[in-house]
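Below is a filled-in request sheet from our internal design queue. Each sheet records the structural input a requester submitted and the sequence that came back. We keep these sheets so that new team members can see what a complete request looks like end to end.

REQUESTER: design group, bay 2
PRIORITY: normal
MODE: inverse folding
CHAIN LENGTH: 155
BACKBONE (tokenized):
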């Protein structure tokens, strides 16, 4: 049922429900490659197709092109892997409001092979702790305005 995975950290696959509880996957008519990275497809691939100068994101008073978004997310993904040791399949928690930086973090973590766990800004440390423990979070990317509850969760 499942194809091969590039994840070296197999936590998510190991914790899937039994196959009889899975939804029906109706993928007839689609020609997906064996491996597909959504972060790459939504940034780098669009630049390769000539859409680099088109608007990708609008927020916080400015527009960002696909080329800018691709460069930004590649830098973040590189930092996650090289500076923080992220491995494919590790879980990365993102704590942020909906804004361009959150989108860039999601795309970057996905490009790096992470399984992203987005959280709502209103969650308190006790609720965050449950998520961190259940998902065995490896890294967290947090908006500085929301750090207090994240720091309390880490203690």
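RETURNED SEQUENCE:
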């Amino acid at each position: 049922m499942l194809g091969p995975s590039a994840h070296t950290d197999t936590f998510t696959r190991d914790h899937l429900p039994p196959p009889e509880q899975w939804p029906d996957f109706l993928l007839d008519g689609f020609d997906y490659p064996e491996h597909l990275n959504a972060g790459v497809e939504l940034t780098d691939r669009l630049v390769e197709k000539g859409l680099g100068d088109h608007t990708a994101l609008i927020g916080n008073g400015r527009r960002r092109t696909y080329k800018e978004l691709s460069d930004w997310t590649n830098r973040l993904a590189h930092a996650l892997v090289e500076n923080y040791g992220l491995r494919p399949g590790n879980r990365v928690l993102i704590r942020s409001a909906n804004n361009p930086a959150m989108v860039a973090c999601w795309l970057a973590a996905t490009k790096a092979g992470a399984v992203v766990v987005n959280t709502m800004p209103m969650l308190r440390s006790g609720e965050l702790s449950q998520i961190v423990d259940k998902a065995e979070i490896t890294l967290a990317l947090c908006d500085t305005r929301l750090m207090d509850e994240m720091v309390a969760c880490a203690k």
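SHEET NOTES:
- The beta strands are 55-59, 62-65, 91-95, 115-119, 139-142.
- Residues 54-155 form a domain with the Rossmann fold fold (CATH 3.40.50.980).
FILED BY: M.R.
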